[in-house]
Give the backbone structure.
Amino acid sequence: MLRKLAIVLMLVLMPALLFAQARPIVLRLAETHPEGYPTTKGDYEFARLVKERSNGRIIIEVYAGSQLGQEKAVIEQVQFGAIDLTRVSISPMASFVPRLNAFQMPYLYRDEAHMWKVLKGDIGKELLKSLEPFGFIGLGWFESGARNFYNSKRPIRTPADLKGLKIRVQESELMMGLVAAFGAVPTPMPFGEVYSALQTGVVDGAENNWPSYFSTSHYEVAKYYTLDEHTRVPEIIVGSKISLSKLSKADQELIRQAAFDAIDYQRAEWAAYEKLARDKVVAAGCQIIEITDKTPWMELMKPLYARQSKEIQDLIEKIRAVK
């Protein structure tokens, strides 16, 4: 009798057990930028690779357009395991992991190719691993171009032209120091608030790359764009150590490799969108100011470099030595 009852129970429960086993693991990824933006497209390529390589066992849901919050708040939630993954700039991440400041120092990289040799090489890989003690799993890097100043008041041709302007910066001590070194007034605020701040005069300008300048419509309210290329600030994909530690080592490695393999796709999307953004901004009548000699700009950054810790300065020297 007991045997028959056990068989009946097994037959009843088996479908439920099989269903439970078949349910995929769902991870949420927070993205600041809107649908169609190059980093968002990179997120989706990352998600596609994870789904494909796990045969559908792991699903990454991308929440674009700051649906899950602004960058700093999202980073905190990832650290506590409330959000599984995010793609953010390393500027706000540096508040949590100070070593990241080395990767965003002004006028650090010779060019884009130099930056990617660093990021894809031993230095970049080692730095991703160094995030774990802070509650994050570093997964990969994305392109974000060179950052330039733009404002609503006047053309900026020399550092002196920035003096007194209220410039929005990311919530980063380093970026505040950079702007202050030029004599401007650094004004940290979330990315999503910048358009209205420019429109109402809360800030006079900001600094960002071509795609962000265009996609946010900042060019409509700040028509002077200066190509000083003061920083190249990589984007980073990070996971929650709490969330990802629940996965097998094999699945964690699968996710890491997928993030790394999405890099080239995202870089190609970035290059195409950067050209589109530049063409649109020029067509809209914005004034583009080319800076051919960056020496005066670089000279003003020496005190900022000198204030960095020995650890950061040693890392900077390693970055500069990459050929």
User: Anything to note?
Assistant: The chain has 15 helices and eleven strands. The first strand starts at residue 25 and ends at 31. Residues 215 and 277 are 8 Å apart (CA to CA).
